[in-house]
From TrEMBL:
Biased composition range(s): Basic and acidic residues: 140-153
Region named Disordered: 134-153
Domain AraC effector-binding: 3-153
Superkingdom per UniProt: Bacteria
Name this protein carries in UniProt: GyrI-like domain-containing protein
Highest classification ranks of the organism: Bacteria, Pseudomonadati, Pseudomonadota, Alphaproteobacteria, Caulobacterales
Pfam families in the cross-refs: GyrI-like (PF06445)
Length: 153
């Protein structure tokens, strides 16, 4: 389900994003159109994404997601409608890759967080997912890959 986690040191990465604060149960309704909007603006401006789509969760509660959805870019973009410049942080982070459908992400995060705790790391603040391979790669969801990143002390 998840690869053996590793500790990495990330670098601050400019991004083009839409910031959303939504009820948790609206994620499947909101995410697709937001991705299309970001990619439309990036494409129209001739910007080449530097990596895969991601969701950067600033805060999470049982009822609300406060997050950015977007793509890494080479340099900060000018705001365009809801698409704004942002960044992924420079951080010491635990990282793994989950293999499977998006419906299994909650369980994957649970196993990943257990590894973080079992290995003596303390999570700090935010987290992000990078959608390395998803529905655009085919219908076999067992081949989908989502990178999970959890900053730690």
């Amino acid at each position: 389900m998840i690869d053996t986690p590793v500790i990495v040191h990330t670098h601050r990465q400019p991004t083009a994003v839409i910031h959303l604060t939504i009820p948790r149960d609206q994620i499947q309704v909101v995410m697709g159109p937001a991705i299309q909007e970001v990619m439309g603006v990036v494409g129209a401006e001739g910007i080449i994404p530097q990596d895969a789509l991601f969701a950067y969760h600033l805060t999470m509660s049982p009822d609300v997601f406060d997050f950015e959805v977007g793509v890494p870019v080479a340099e900060l973009i000018a705001p365009n409608g809801r698409v704004i410049p942002s960044h992924l942080p420079a951080a010491k982070a635990a990282r793994t890759v989950y293999h499977g459908p998006y419906e299994g992400l909650a369980e994957a995060w649970g196993k990943f967080d257990q590894w973080v705790a079992d290995n003596g790391y303390e999570p700090v603040g935010d987290l992000w997912e990078v959608y390395q391979a998803g529905p655009e790669t085919g219908d076999d969801s067992s081949k989908w890959r989502t990178e999970l990143n959890r900053p730690v002390k």
